[in-house]
């Protein structure tokens, strides 16, 4: 495929001219908003020198990648992605998202939110719409849960992330929250991914529990190709034969994805392991592997949690973990992962 | 099952009395040499107070574990395990084993051995008997390879580890090397494990590529129950649906195994990932997760390797990695993993 | 949980009385339309003898199952499920669904439809909305494809099955087709399953590519608990480490599911194997294992298919297969699977 | 690689001349006994017309296969393989092997042996050396078990199959039994495979629980390249994420392997499913998929079995199954699988 990077401040008419120039030569094109401004993606039919000579064209890249918008090769290294409230992730910025699996009550959420904020979390997580395997299980507080998250944001100043499950919820939910999460069961929910391409809210795209890295990046490409360039990848464990942990955390994908894509990638050790005592070591391991951040389940009273209590840290354990993380990050500082990769190659 | 820990310096006759005492009551017993001296393991039949009152009995522990000799519950935390040549592993001692996948020539091995020694490796690895999927592939240098490893040991002062594939090789190979490796395909080669229980050479037991943690610890139990208490576990990646890495490195088992067993556990990121550029980040991740050490493929000329070249580090990359590791270990120092686990629980 | 089977012809008021009776005792209830008429499902709180004595209550069953509406234990063996146009499936009726992966043109669809009809297929399959891993791939003909399927139905008299991907498509699509398919990537798309619970069109629920049998039956329960009792299960292969076939066809689930649920279960050997030459043997195997039917990709010109050509049978191969199937079914006739299972137990 | 098929009745000197001819040209060669008599396998170096013109050379085939001796391409369709006592398998001959998981007592074995013989089994199975995950579990009756199997053979006239676990057992065990079984944990026990290449006893090679089809055929190649052409493959279920059955029976490999290799392939539904009630349907499915036979666990008193009782059929259930099988085989008769595959292609 061909990615045509357009010059800054070019008008809709300029863009239309680039499209027309390719369509006249039989090419199929679409306009997408790339990390460095508007691009035209073409199937490459009838591409010749004349394309690069158009006044509004900055550069023309050809790629064999099945996810050109997500590829490192085409767009180069990431810049930090703004999460709102002064927080950002990627491009050297590490962010820890923390909070309860599901919003259960005003008291539970605010208590937990204040706790994780004071320990140095960057983002508050909390589920309002819960995907549950069983139709008779607690399905989340819904809209009321969103209101509580917004209240907690005002209290703590932390941006909020919550899961969206249905395409028709994207439009109304996007303005309410700072990050929209796509759960592991929805990674290939293509109507949902298309809807998320139409908004500008950052999307946290969890890896499907049996998705290959290639399928994961193509799922991100659905959102990017739709026009939303704000995508964060999240490894949360894959399905394997071994049930000694809830899932199998696949940390090798951290440096692997960073060698393929410019998108930030974080790790969810809580769903991956399903065991509180394994969360802290796996947080350390994820960051040592070069992850751009973490998403951790924290509950002010894990023993009372309606959902995922056994894998939730309590506030003192989270505070202790954040101390270990800051010492770790200093030790990792000197060599950023990309450089060490170059050396190792 | 019941584990009877005997007092130090107790005689064969003392041990026989304990066995007899149980057999008279219908119990099935076996004498094993535990990490804290000789033990009698019994199926528990006819156990009563009188057993604890025998003069040579130090303690009596009952366990539901299917691997009593390997279990943390019965024997408590590990002590460092002596690897010879002044090196040790476990109980707070971290060891890096490095060297080529297979011994290919005198020059290749000595060049690589000197390189890894000068960068601070603790053990030299090298395969002389190679398990190959295809009968027509290079099967290793055999006995000649062992001689070259011994020469390299003299040159560098590093203890040596090599793979043993056949029960009849154990007796003659054990005195030649410092550590005997059991490969992933042999983890449940029970005749081999029984033969290894009869020697006193430390055994590096790699996890089977589709073995559960429970099967892995029971495989270790075969060696321990045979009388050899010197077992080191090694995670080397499991089989999953995703082929973007050679195997899927399952780092969650590091803290998991440490919560179940007193045996040291190390990580092999070379076979796990199959990609040179992923080895360094996964080494860092393994140690951050609490691993007692690493085994890394290093080759003085990876491009000329007969086997696994694409996953081998060259000497400068290994040296650079060792520098990063030492800085990492300092940052991890303050809290040993076990304690942080306690906090997180 | 408690399932209260109500008597036939009982009024809304009768149903309300049963609900009220339980709610007064603190129970949570929902009314669902079971395979034998309306039921009240309750969490069991405050259930006593008085419940069974209510005039409109036919029976009260208690179950530990996480999918009471789908369970064989509660509702007993299946009856044939009407698919329209005189076709049915389950309860001893075997049905073969056949057609192209995707509707590509009027000529392609009609040619294929007439071919499979004349060979004895019971249902015409064809995708109009295609879930594709890559956003730049052909996404199906959409509404136009539905119109072509309806035309093919008129031409051949075969009921039609097509995939629905989005909750908002369910309401308008349900009246157009005879069976709505839920693809493997949507098995846990809970908003979609809830929408399908509100219509009365039969639903073909494919197993998720990494779904356990328990998760699969709970996904069916979402549709059943929503009020739509017309669910057909479809095994289409799971993800495993072995890529010598596209997926791993898990035929053991056929007798397994039949021992757990009253729902009909069919097999898709085309997506499971991804290889035309394996489709016929796997069709035979599926029926010998006791499947209630098959869904097979057939294309009048496989070499020209826009999607899944390599796994599509051509018309002569499908016709030959149908001949083998009819001879096989005669040989299987004498002992229905359930009975042989009893014997084997 | 190059496979040189030699003419019948050619002398050792003739063979030596062919080897010499290639070695002079720098080729690496080995002599193997192929299904159609002696062959010379060469790496292809320096092969030219002159090779085919040597008097003792019947044909010269070149192949890219990593398992030339096992490949259908090189050697064409299988002939029936003689199992002794008038029984054979493959090339259109179907064989059912049946008996207890392990030999437990004279009474148990003889009772079961007579039962399966009278129901029409072709081979008696029974384990004397048992691979057990736990070192404290029953490890089999050993040599005494072999003697009981031989007695049962005299009583019933059925050839016997039993597992061999250690290379040093091959030489003495081979003359005692009719078929030597390689268990799933030993599929890549290369010293064992090499030892089995040196005898002429048929080998039943079970697929490793996480082995790809390619690895399985290369494991067979070890035996074939060693000089033993009598290999039978056995699919017994692979490891997957789903634990609703003990393993996942991968029946698609039956037609797949038959399209790649001339070796007979059978199915073990007992270990695959781990559930008695699933064994009969999976036997039917395996044969409908084109398997050359079955190996089924049968016990005269399953409730008293020391090992695998829950998956063992009792004698009446086995007798009933054999009746269903004979009716099924008649219905499958008209079209042998290979031909239908050609049609489907």
TrEMBL record, chains A, B, C, D:
Membrane spanning stretches: none
GO biological process assignments: aromatic amino acid family biosynthetic process
Keywords for this protein: Transferase
Lineage: superkingdom: Bacteria
InterPro entries according to UniProt: Aldolase_TIM, Class-I_DAHP_synthase, DAHP1/KDSA, DAHP_syn_2
Domain DAHP synthetase I/KDSA: 85-321
Protein name: 3-deoxy-D-arabinoheptulosonate-7-phosphate synthase
Organism this protein belongs to: Dethiosulfovibrio salsuginis
Pfam families attached to this UniProt entry: DAHP_synth_1
GO MF annotation list: aldehyde-lyase activity; transferase activity
């Amino acid at each position: 495929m061909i990615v045509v990077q357009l010059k800054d401040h070019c008008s809709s008419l300029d863009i239309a001219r680039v499209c027309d120039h390719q369509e006249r030569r039989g090419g199929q094109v679409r306009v997408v908003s790339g990390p460095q401004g508007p691009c035209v993606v073409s199937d490459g039919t009838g591409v010749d020198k004349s394309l690069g000579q158009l006044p509004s064209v900055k550069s023309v890249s050809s790629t064999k990648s099945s996810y050109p918008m997500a590829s490192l090769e085409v767009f180069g290294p990431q810049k930090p992605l703004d999460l709102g409230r002064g927080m950002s992730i990627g491009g050297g910025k590490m962010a820890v998202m923390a909070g309860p699996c599901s919003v259960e009550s005003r008291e539970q959420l605010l208590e937990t939110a204040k706790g994780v904020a004071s320990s140095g979390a960057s983002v508050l997580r909390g589920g309002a719409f819960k995907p549950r395997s069983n139709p008779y299980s607690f399905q989340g507080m819904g809209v009321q849960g969103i209101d509580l998250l917004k209240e907690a944001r005002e209290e703590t100043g932390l941006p909020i992330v919550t899961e969206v499950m249905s395409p028709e919820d994207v439009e109304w939910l996007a303005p309410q929250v700072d990050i929209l999460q796509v759960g592991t069961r929805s990674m290939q929910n293509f109507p949902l991914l298309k809807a998320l391409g139409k908004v500008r809210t950052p999307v946290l795209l969890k890896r499907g529990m049996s998705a290959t890295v290639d399928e994961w990046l193509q799922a991100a490409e659905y959102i990017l190709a739709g026009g939303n360039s704000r995508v964060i990848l999240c490894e949360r464990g894959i399905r394997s034969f071994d049930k000694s942990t809830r899932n199998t955390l696949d940390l090798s994908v951290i440096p692997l994805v960073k060698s393929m894509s410019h998108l930030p990638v974080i790790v969810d050790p809580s769903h991956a392991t399903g065991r509180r005592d394994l969360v802290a070591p796996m947080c350390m391991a994820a960051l040592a592997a070069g992850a751009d951040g973490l998403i951790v389940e924290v509950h002010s009273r894990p023993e009372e949690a309606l959902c995922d209590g056994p894998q939730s840290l309590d506030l003192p354990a989270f505070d202790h973990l954040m101390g270990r993380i800051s010492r770790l990050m200093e030790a990792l500082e000197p060599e950023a992962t990309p450089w060490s990769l170059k050396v190792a190659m």
